[in-house]
Write a structure and sequence with these properties.
The chain is mainly β. It contains one helix and 18 strands. The strands form four sheets. Strands 2-10-9-4-7-6 form a six-stranded mixed beta sheet, with no helix packed on it. The longest helix is centred in the N-terminal third of the chain and has 23 residues, at 2-24. The radius of gyration is 29 Å and the shape is elongated. The protein starts with a helix and ends in a 6-residue tail after the last strand.
């Protein structure tokens, strides 16, 4: 009877120990998400730093991070010193491949930085979720993180074009300057001027910040433009080729520079 009880207790202990070992031999992913700057003005770029760490006892194979970003933003690019690669996989969705993450005792961590261009005023929330081909022994909520940020009103930017003359004969040289002014209230960044070259005007020279892209003059203003600050771009020069006693019409516009990712 004593021997039988000993064997029974030993078998129960061994089963409990094996069960305990299996319960702890799992992947345990954790996410840390931060942003900068916060708050930000509309048309500004938010940089999100996302850390994914494996606190489990076994490696996390094929670790994937899915990022859902707001519809009032545009993907501007990503960077990582840990070899993480990201690509757009849907409307306002980004997938990043973290590869394998070693578990205990190393608890390997990898980081990726994601940049989003803000397009409108409001409160925006970015959601990030980490998954693995292994088994995560924590609730799904612990493998995801959200970050909310306030986007302020932004800037009201005006564009004025000033020509060297309002009347000139055919064959003469005409030059003009573009002036961008930020009426506030926030600073403006990543601006682009688009100026289609009109029929009857043969372009001859451009300032360094401008290029001729298929018949449209493109001028980028990357640096910040503070409230009430103006930036002159020019001169833009060319020759009038239209017939005499005709009107040459040229209209330019200013807006946000298209993002790298979209």
């Amino acid at each position: 009877m004593l021997y039988s009880s000993f064997v029974e207790n030993f078998m129960q202990y061994r089963n409990n120990f094996a069960l305990s070992q299996r319960c702890h031999a799992e992947v345990d992913l954790a996410i840390n998400l931060s942003d900068s700057p916060d708050p930000i003005a509309a048309s500004g770029v938010i940089s999100y730093a996302i850390d994914v760490e494996n606190n489990g006892d076994i490696p996390s194979p094929a670790t994937t991070l899915t990022v859902d970003f707001p519809t009032t933003t545009s993907f501007s690019g990503s960077a990582s010193i840990d070899g993480v690669t990201c690509s757009e996989t849907g409307s306002y969705e980004l997938t990043c491949n973290f590869g394998s993450l070693v578990g205990y005792p190393t608890s390997e961590r990898k980081t990726v930085e994601i940049d989003l261009l803000t397009l409108a005023k409001g409160i925006i929330t970015l959601c990030a979720t980490a998954t693995t081909n292994g088994t995560d022994d924590v609730p799904a909520s612990l493998s995801s993180d959200n970050e909310t940020i306030a986007v302020n009103q932004g800037a009201d930017v005006a564009l004025v074009k000033t020509a060297s003359t309002i009347s000139a004969p055919s064959g003469s040289v005409l030059s003009y300057t573009l002036t961008a002014t930020n009426n506030g209230p926030d600073e403006a960044t990543l601006l682009r001027i688009e100026d289609p070259i009109p029929s009857g005007f043969r372009l001859s020279s451009l300032p360094t910040e401008c290029t001729d892209s298929g018949g449209t003059i493109i001028c980028d203003i990357d640096g910040p433009l503070a409230q009430d600050e103006s930036r002159n771009i020019g001169p833009i020069r060319g020759t009038i080729t239209s017939a005499s006693v005709s009107t040459l019409t040229n209209a330019a516009s200013i807006g946000l520079k298209p993002s790298v990712g979209g």
